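REVIEWER CHECKLIST
Item 1: Sequence provided? yes
Item 2: Single chain? yes
Item 3: Sequence as submitted:
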Amino acid sequence: MMRIPLAWAAAPFYYLYQAVCATLRFHERRREAVDSLDAAGERMVFCLWHDELFPLMRVRRDLDIVTVVSPSRDGELLARVLEKLGLRTVRGSSTRGGIRALLGASRLMKRDGVHACITIDGPMGPRHRAKDGAFFLSAHADAWIVPVRILPRPALRLPSWDRFKVPVPFGRVDINFGQPWKIEAGELNDDTLAAARVRIERELAELAPSPGGVGKELLASLRARGVGGPVRLCNLGDRFIPHGAVPELYRLAGLDAKSLADAAWEVCQNEA
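Item 4: Structure as written out by the authors:
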């Protein structure tokens, strides 16, 4: 079967992406620290979940950013689209060429003063479990770690390992920036990495809205006591819930017994 050249395939994705993003309404929170660091010539590593990658260009604006992209064929297509959008790319993943890619990104950051963007649970998960690449870049490129949540609503969920979110045209996208922090080169060891994984997962969880706040408060309390492990917060988010019978509304919101059991099972499977 004839394969379509990737250069041809990238163009439709690029124009479709631009068309969708042009319809979205973006709302940013706490970006001031990012702009201050950039103005001061400080390097940053933006850390986000793989399923929230779609509206990345709004995070970029006029920043010069390098991204690490999987060396797979799908990754090649993504790399071509990202490059058309003005980002730099290096190729590698946690299983293929990862160290080489991180070293390449670190060299670019130090040589050209560019920032980096890492999907810290990519390219193949487990979903919302942090890996160490961003911490390596922070230490070796003397860069600040910046947690970022990109939250489109409404959004379509793809049947992929990360339940990738695709914003619905004319929707809203909230971009929430966390407080920057750094890992020094001399501090890079197993204990520091373990603590950094817990910290970044906690901070990313806290950057997502959780009306009612019970799950968020419980998670923060557990993390403060040193309790690790996978966690998924289940709540209504900020979507509109119509009138109806209570059991049906629970089902629609994903808060009925079956939905909660399915979520718990998925977390356990990812942990296994």
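Item 5: Key structural point noted by reviewer: The mean pLDDT is 83.
Item 6: Recommendation: ____
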